Amino acid sequence: MIASKELNKDFPWARLHSLRYPVRLDALGEVLEEIRAARRKTDHSDPRPCGSDLIGDSADTRFVRKLIEQVAPSLATVLITGESGTGKEVVARQIHEQSGRMGPFIAVNCGAIPENLLESELFGHERGAFTGAVSTRAGRFEQASGGTFFLDEIGDMPTVMQVKLLRVLEERVIERVGSATSIPVDVRLIAATHRDLPQRISAGEFREDLYYRLSVFPIEITPLRDRKEDIAPLVSEFIRRLESEKSISLQLTNEAMEVLEAYSWSGNVRELANLIERLAVIRPNGRVGARDLPWPIAERGDLAAGDPEIVSSDLRPVEGSSAVHLPTDGLDLKKYLAQVEQDMITQALGDSEGVVQRAAELLGIGRTTLVEKIKRYELKSPKSKVN
After folding, report:
1. DSSP assignments along 68-125, one per residue
2. Which residues share a beta bridge with 188?
3. Which 8-state DSSP code applies to residue 23?
4. Quick one: pLDDT at residue 368?
5. DSSP track, 210-269
6. Which of 86, 95, 306, 372 could share a disulfide with 82, CB 3.0–4.6 Å?
7. How far apart are the C-alpha atoms of 150 and 165, rounded to whole Å?
8. What three-state secondary structure class fits 135?
9. Within 10 Å of residue 198's Cβ, how many Cβ atoms?
10. Integer distance in angstroms from the first to the last C-alpha of the chain?
11. Strand, coil or helix: what is 366?
């Protein structure tokens, strides 16, 4: 929480009190724009986020590191592909950090911004360009000047915007919404997607010429299930961060690690990170055994069926039956089912990068229903986006 004295110093909050009621939209817009501008001024740097290192010892991860070293010093446009949660933004940040470019690293998720706002977000706008444009605003391309601009989920970019992005790549100029003046931009562009772009090209949903412009230097990240050697280093790194940031100590038994290494990890590295964070809540400052892992992970681990130390949960499937085994000391069924539902929602939000509509489709429920459940359980995600 920022102290009120600091707020008064850095932000024009007092302007809110000068508004006369009933509040006019244009007056309110001007004040909000001032606050937004003041906030941008206080953000002098692009902080290195926790987890920007590429962790892992597998041959695939070592190969990706080599590709990063090769392409980083150049200005070549990079297209990073791979499933959701594999660490595409981590790779993009590594390229930026090794590039020597002094400007900021600016990231935009194309699938999380409404189509009618995407152009203004990327290219900026002039005052009066549209309703609510109460002042001139620089877009993300201009903000990334001298640095790297990362366009995540480029496969979700509307076709109209694809044409305008192609022009930027070809001419290195942008035009703000409401202006005919071309503004040169000095940015290194990196794009990423979990979608099959050649398939979308065949379906007429992605421009072929833009695809070839983006994939000057392609980097494909393999899913975590195909690089099991990375799991142990990743677990160690996530535990190290817990100890550093929250003073929480965690230790996994050999049996627990065997279960994790046998699991398929549909949510990839993001799912693994979420699991370690959950275990820190369940077993703070303690030892985590196979039995402390959620039963879906242990079940899919496919390890030594029948060994009670490997089958990790007290609520595990009974062989040859769809039922589950009831612990001898009983359980609170309502609480247990609620926890399972929360876990599934959290995983779906993670797999969909916080896009609620996608998460609802993964769960097979309506978007409105999912929003209600998120509010009921008070779930929070740093990248949660309602669309």
Report:
1. HHHHTTS---EEEE--TTS-HHHHHHHHHHHHT--S-EEEEEGGGS-HHHHHHHHHEE
2. 148
3. P
4. 79
5. HHHHHTTEEEEPPPGGG-GGGHHHHHHHHHHHHHHHH---EEE-HHHHHHHHHS--TTHH
6. 86
7. 13
8. coil
9. 12
10. 28
11. coil
Judge contact between 50 and 90, C-beta under 8 A: no
- Structure tokens, 303: 């390890």
pLDDT of residue 6: 41
Neighbours of 333 (CB within 10 A): 10
Distances from the Cα of 84 to the Cαs of 128, 274, 321, 358, in angstroms? 38, 14, 33, 12
Residues 129, 132, 135: CA angle, nearest 5 degrees? 65
Measured CA to CA, the distance from residue 347 to residue 362 in angstroms comes to 10
The Cα 364–Cα 358 span in angstroms is 10
Task: Give the pair of three-digit tokens for residue 242.
Answer: 């817990």
Look-up of token digits 């444009």? 133
Shortest CA distance to 116 belongs to which of 135, 98, 99, 131? 131
Count of residues in the chain? 387
Which element (helix H / strand E) includes 137? strand 137-138
Output the CA torsion sign for 206, 207, 208, 213: negative
3-state secondary structure of 177: strand
Residue 276 CA to residue 260 CA, distance in Å, equals 11
3-state helix, strand, coil in the chain (%, to 5): 50, 10, 40
Question: Would you give per-residue pLDDT tens digits along the chain (387 residues)?
Answer: 344 434 444 445 555 556 666 655 555 655 565 555 554 443 434 544 444 689 999 999 999 999 999 999 999 999 999 999 999 999 999 999 999 999 999 999 998 888 888 888 899 878 877 777 777 888 899 999 999 999 999 999 999 999 999 999 999 998 888 888 888 999 999 999 999 999 999 999 999 999 999 999 999 999 999 999 999 999 999 999 988 888 888 899 999 999 999 898 989 999 999 999 888 887 776 788 888 888 677 665 444 334 443 333 444 444 444 445 566 666 677 777 888 888 888 888 888 888 888 888 888 888 878 888 888 888 865 444 445
Q: Please report where in the chains the tokens 């400007």 appear, as a residue.
A: 103
pTM: predicted TM-score of the whole model, two decimal places: 0.66
The candidate with the shortest Cα–Cα distance to 60, out of 224, 247, 173, is: 224
Question: pLDDT value at position 74?
Answer: 93
